[in-house]
Amino acid sequence: MAKDLNKLFGAKIKEYRLKKNLTQWDLSGLVNVDQKHISRIECGKSFPSAKVLESLAKALDVEPKDLFEFYHLQDDKSLKKDIISMLENLKSEELSLVYKYIRTFVL
């Protein structure tokens, strides 16, 4: 991945926060940290402690592991490489099913 972990994690926190229609101020109140700390996390300048990470997941109503799924934040080249890698391991019937799904979205 081209971006570092702090930036990817921060982008993920911001993504979930916006999905919940929360401001940084709102989230900071739910997590019981200063709003500036949320800002630093989202900018990738800081990384939360395990306790804050757990509170973030709870406040955002997600599993902690979900905060580390960055595949959609990758650049196009990395995404294509990952997709090709996944396709190479599929059985014939699975590949046909994936083809149908892709055609649904592309056409």
Structure description:
This protein is mainly alpha-helical. It folds into two domains: 5-71, lambda repressor-like DNA-binding domains (434 Repressor (Amino-terminal Domain), Orthogonal Bundle); 75-106. 66% of the residues lie in helices and 0% in strands. It contains six helices and no strands. The two termini are 29 Å apart.
Keywords:
107 residues, mainly alpha, 434 Repressor (Amino-terminal Domain), 2 domains, 6 helices, elongated
Domain count: 2
**Helix fraction bin:** 55-70%
How many DSSP-defined strands? 0
| Share of residues in strands | under 5%
Strand count, sense and closure of the main sheet?
none
Mean pLDDT: 90
Q: Helix- and strand-based class?
A: mainly alpha
How would you briefly describe this protein structure?
The protein has 107 residues and is an all-alpha fold. The chain has helices spanning 5-19, 24-31, 35-43, 50-60, 76-88, 92-106.
Describe the SSE topology:
Blueprint: H1 5-19, H2 24-31, H3 35-43, H4 50-60, H5 76-88, H6 92-106
Helix pairs in contact: 1-3, 2-3
